[in-house]
Amino acid sequence: MLEVRNLYKTYEGKPLLTDISFTVAEGETICLLGASGSGKSTLLRMIAGLESPDSGIVAFDGLDLSSTPPHLRDFGLVFQDYALFPHLNVSDNVAFGLKMRRIEQYEIADRVASMLESVNLRGFENRNVTDLSGGEQQRVALARALAIRPRLLMFDEPLGALDRALREGLLQELRGILHRTKIPAMYVTHDQAEAFAIADRILILHDGEIVRDDTPKAVTADPKSAFVARFLGLGDVIEAGYLGRNKFQTTYGVFTVKCGHKHAKGERVHLLARPLEVRREANVVGGLVSDIVFDRDRFKVTLDNGLQIYMKDAPKVGRKITARVKVECLS
Questions:
Q1: Computed from CA positions of residues 274, 276, 277, 278, in that sequence, does the dihedral angle turn out positive or negative?
Q2: What is the pLDDT of residue 164?
Q3: Of 204, 162, 155, 160, residue with least CA distance to 177
């Protein structure tokens, strides 16, 4: 099991990561999700041993890795730019880490064949990596990471350079490989769809801290903060004043919200109005339709007051409408 305890890191004299702590269990895939510059890749590099924290501990199975160099940590890394050796063919790229570990040639051959089979590249052994597509090159990079039988797999925006169709296909294959091998994995991305498709747990980084750590379902159901709700695009975050008896004053009217928090009268809070129409425990919102966008099997309707609602049928632009939406208290 990987354990990260109280990691701190500064950049140009300013805090980048503050008191980062979490674990990754055997067979678990966690995703570090955050905006660009949030410190995701830096955190990954510290765990890999490519950078040193200002303080804190990275441990695996209870052993502190502070004095263990990157090549002895037995962690596999897969990067967005593949990091393949252009002068080596597919087979030699996959075998590179094994040769550095002075593994017997017969075992290297067996492992290379097995890994290429697992990533659907059997028959590509003698191909030049520069002649491969982006998706094929990323498969080679994954096979190379798997070949050393890593204790932990680490992915840094691995699909960022691929188009949508390739990304979705490779993501599905990668999820299958991780489930079969049961290798613990850390996956860094800014793409929410990737994160929710592959992760057992989501860790959201903001201002150098992990502000949410839970399953994808739990994070979506209960973001717990205005930042997470906005970041994940869960709905409209509305400032409100508490009036008492579960009533909140907003610029859109008075909302009734059953809330588990304790609020004093007049306290400023954040509410989340999810854009899906509902019938129960709902509040009415309304306005003039200013924009309509078809989003897969429904329409995203934007009102002139900025609120957004998903509707099965599209109203006309300029029409005044009302809708019943679920509103919940974030803080």
A1: negative
A2: 75
A3: 155
* Axis-axis angle for helices 134-147, 164-181 (nearest 10): 20
Question: Residue range 275-298: average pLDDT?
Answer: 81
pTM value?
0.84
User: Alpha-carbon distance 149 to 143, whole Å?
Assistant: 10
Amino acid code (one letter) for 19? D
- The domains found in the chain, sorted by start residue, are 2-221 (3.40.50.300), 235-329 (no CATH)
Q: Angle between the 105-118 and 134-147 helix axes, to the nearest 10 degrees?
A: 140
Q: How far apart are CA 307 and CA 320, in angstroms?
A: 13
183-242 pLDDT per residue, tens: 999 999 888 888 998 999 999 999 999 999 999 999 999 999 999 999 998 989 999 999
Closest by CA to 309, choosing from 223, 247, 327, is: 327
Q: How far apart are CA 293 and CA 82, in angstroms?
A: 36
Distance CA 267, CA 151 (A): 49
Quick check: 22 and 214 in contact, CB under 8 A? no
- Calculated CA dihedral for residues 319, 322, 323, 329, nearest 10 degrees: 120
